[in-house]
Amino acid sequence: MQTLQACLQTCSPGAAELTRAIERVEAAFTKHEAWQCIKRCFERHVGRSAFVKDVVRNHVTTTSTGLAHVHRVVGNLQLDNFATQLVRAMRPEVRADIVDRWSQPDGTGLYVTEGNFIAVGIPGTDLRLSLMDGGFSHQGLNLSQAEATQLLLARPEGTPPGTTLLDLLPMLTDDRPLASFRIIGAAIGDDGHVLPGLDRDATHAAAAAAHDALTHLSGTLPEREALARFFGSQGDERRAAQSREIIAQIRSGMSPDENFRSGEVARERLETIDAIRRFNDLRAGENRQRAAFHYARAASPQLAAEQYLASAKMYASAADHRMAASMYANAAEKLASFATFRDISQVLTDAITAYENDVSAVSRIGTRCAEALTKQGLYVSAAMAHDLVTHRLLDWLEKQPAGVDMAQVRARYAAHTEAMFECFAAVGLSVTEFDTPSLIRSAIDARRNDLASSDGLAGNRYVIHFDDESDTISAQAFDAHAPTTWVLLRRGDIGDPKQVYELMTEDSMHDLLRHRSVHPYHRKPLVETDFVEGIEVLDMLTAKPPGPDAAAPARASV
């Protein structure tokens, strides 16, 4: 062993002298007396020579030279698998001895290797066992919360007094995030809390670093569940949301065999494959819902809306129509806080459809979306939300389905119709017959001075110009009474922080797209997304400054 250690310090990876030193140690441990030391620690499941080779190879990887030497023929994944197998082969009393030493002030038998892996001394030998990543998995040490806490508070050999593994974890996480992720996860209880003695801020810093490094890797349900609970208890809403999103992805990808192995089939009494799939869909829906909740608290409404919508689809797949309707409604309401009617119309329609014959629920979600839209200053979008509800109410009035309170339907229809007209009136639009091009012309006519000014008509992060009150492509002058449809052309890139638009006729737009013309301002081929049409144009022309007081006209009261 002394010769091997000397070679590991002086030789280069791949050196024949180092190879011979390793082979001599393997031969020595294969002999009866030395083999007894190994045998006392492990229950082997392969031949003696092969097992000793695995043990010695693992020991060699605890130095940077040895790791590079072994890497010439064995990859990281194989080494990790070998480490997991060695940990699983460890006798229970040896495992207990290793864990007990972590609580000692000195002689903990805990090491941080030159490759930034965590290793433990094998009792009764000079060998060390690099745990790598797999050693901390449920197939490896499978640490309890108390054991993981003990590990984090242990002093690694060779470090100054008072140093703990938790102190070193941020450094280790840069190279070995999965091991850190698993240790921290094991140290978190079912309630999302850590045991006394473990600094919560330091634990959170280590958990956050590991999580951020592993967003591309799903991990296992127990690992992700622990971190999701912990981040939630720490008020780390963004990482709690991301964790719940990953858990939902794991659930959606689970096979029935995985449910069997986890014990869920027996525990939940799932008797058919369809029942197992429905169970996974429901759990995925729940976690998407919780992800949305955390994203909303993290002031990320778009991500929250995406998760509510994904949750709705999972609940619908599981035939839980009540929850699906609720999630579609949540998604629509969240979208209405930052998007336009064009963006929310399909989701709101899905919510209305999912609510089936629940008149109150249909009316309520339409009103909430309208209120959220008016808070953005988008009164036309709010009017369209009410209009969408009136179409559903009118359908009930025409079909008279059994079990639906027609008196309530008539009252709601009148209220939403009135609220729709109030929203139009709030931005100076008189609607006798709904005709979008005509309303756009009316809106332009009422704002001609601002539109034609050098500053243009300013909106929320955008401005609209109407130079000379004419289409710059066709030179067609604006006429409020001519049956012309007007659209908006975006002058800049779609990602610009402040958008600049100009008014153009629909005919010019079609001509430009048909001839694949170059954009007049940045010399790129024009595409449909360079234009804004219909209700969205009307919204942008009539938008008021966003604010909490803007919601009053949107309520449909009965």
Task: Explain how this protein is built.
The protein has 558 residues and is mainly alpha-helical. The chain contains 26 helices and 8 strands. A 5-stranded mixed sheet has the order 4-5-7-6-8. Helix 20 packs parallel to helix 22 and helix 21 (379-399) packs antiparallel against helix 22. The protein starts with a helix and ends in a 16-residue tail after the last helix.
What is this entry, summarized?
By secondary structure, this protein is mainly alpha-helical. 58% of the residues lie in helices and 6% in strands.
Extract low-pLDDT stretches.
none
Output the structural class: mainly alpha
Helical coverage, percent range:
55-70%
Quick check: average pLDDT? 91
Q: Tell me the strand percentage band.
A: 5-15%
How big is the Rg? 33 Å
**Total helical elements:** 26
Alpha carbon gap, first and last residue:
87 Å
**E-strand count:** 8
Biggest sheet strand line-up: 4-5-7-6-8
Major sheet details: 5 strands, mixed
Q: Secondary-structure blueprint of this entry?
A:
Blueprint: H1 2-10, H2 16-30, H3 32-41, H4 48-60, H5 64-71, H6 76-89, H7 92-101, E1 110-112, E2 118-121, E3 128-130, H8 145-152, H9 165-175, H10 177-186, H11 200-213, H12 221-233, H13 237-252, H14 256-262, H15 264-267, H16 273-297, H17 301-317, H18 321-335, H19 341-354, H20 359-375, H21 379-399, H22 406-426, H23 436-446, H24 448-452, E4 457-459, E5 462-465, E6 486-490, E7 499-505, H25 506-514, E8 531-532, H26 535-542
Parallel strand pairs: 5-7
Antiparallel strand pairs: 1-2, 2-3, 4-5, 6-7, 6-8
Helix pairs in contact: 1-2, 2-4, 9-10, 9-11, 10-11, 10-12, 12-13, 13-16, 16-17, 17-18, 18-19, 18-20, 19-20, 19-21, 20-21, 20-22, 21-22, 23-26
